[in-house]
Amino acid sequence: MPSKDPYEILGVPRHATPAEIKRAYRRLAKEYHPDRNRGDKTAEPRFKEVHAAYEVLGDPQRRAQYDRFGAGGPAPEFRTWSTDAGAPFADVQFDFGSLGDLSSIFEQFFARGMPRGRQRSAARGPRPHGPDLAHEIELSFEEALRGATRELILTGGGRDGRGERIEVRIPPGVDDGQRIRAKGRGQAGPGGRGDLMIRCRVRPHPLFRREGLDVLLDVPLNIAEALCGAKIEIPTPDGPTVVTVPPGTSSGAKLRLRGRGVRDGSSGARGDLLAVVRIRVPKSVSPRARQLVEELERELAYQPRAGWPA
């Protein structure tokens, strides 16, 4: 059976730098991670193979020994390489072609001939964490702004495969589709538990919408309020407040209330509330109202399209 060369597994040349080896390992481990390849039975063995190869090439001493005695060097059969006690190996051969046992084969290959304390360290090596778990939660617009606490039950996360009940804190300011990482809440593995990746889904609000850290609110005004100015009460995520509409405010103008928007969970900075003016006109008017509007138009003599090309 042809041997498995860790350089070939990671797709790097024998003169690759440690940084190049690490980049190749991270790329392949991400590509073949079982969580990203559900239903693909070939992904997990390939993931283990990549990890085993990096256990060799990611350690300078193990790599040096492999370069000397592994694929590309002398045949992997050693009769004179002795242990600390001086006892030679007898017909020791290592087959790198076995996919399932590749990790243990690498460990055995490099643990032999080391001092016993280092044998234990080499046998342990860097161990992979368990797979990450994914969960999705739904939040109201207000919960996303202020933060929330959710109690989750992770299927198979507890002992004997039972569900594990955990409490997760969602920080303020999360956006729709954002992921929150709960470290050490995933599945168990040789190197400890993986993480829990929580995807947040924020329900739309009937009045408010979000742009970054700013909250936008459409505020309808009638013609008189827009023309003459007014003080009006508007809702905000912190409760109602009064804003001043300057005289001559046009539709689309934004009235800014500083510090009334979304709070950033990491920096503590807070956005603004932008009240977007929307001038509303009635669909029908009485004859008297029409007469008054026509008189107002003549009095104002205002041409909003002045300057357009003829």
Overview in brief:
This protein is of the alpha+beta class and 310 residues long. Helix content is 29%, strand content 22%. It has 9 helices and 13 strands.
Account of the 3D structure:
About 14% of the residues have low confidence. By secondary structure, the protein is of the alpha+beta class. Helix 3 runs parallel beside helix 5 and helix 5 runs antiparallel to helix 6. Helices cover 29% and strands 22% of the residues. The strands form five sheets. It has a four-stranded mixed sheet with strand order 8-9-13-12. The chain has a three-stranded mixed sheet with strand order 3-7-6. It has three domains: 119 residues, Helix Hairpins (Orthogonal Bundle); 70 residues, Sandwich (HSP40/DNAj peptide-binding domain); 93 residues, HSP40/DNAj peptide-binding domain. The N and C termini lie far apart (85 Å). The chain is built from nine helices and 13 strands. The longest helix has 15 residues. A hairpin with a 6-residue loop joins strand 10 and strand 11.
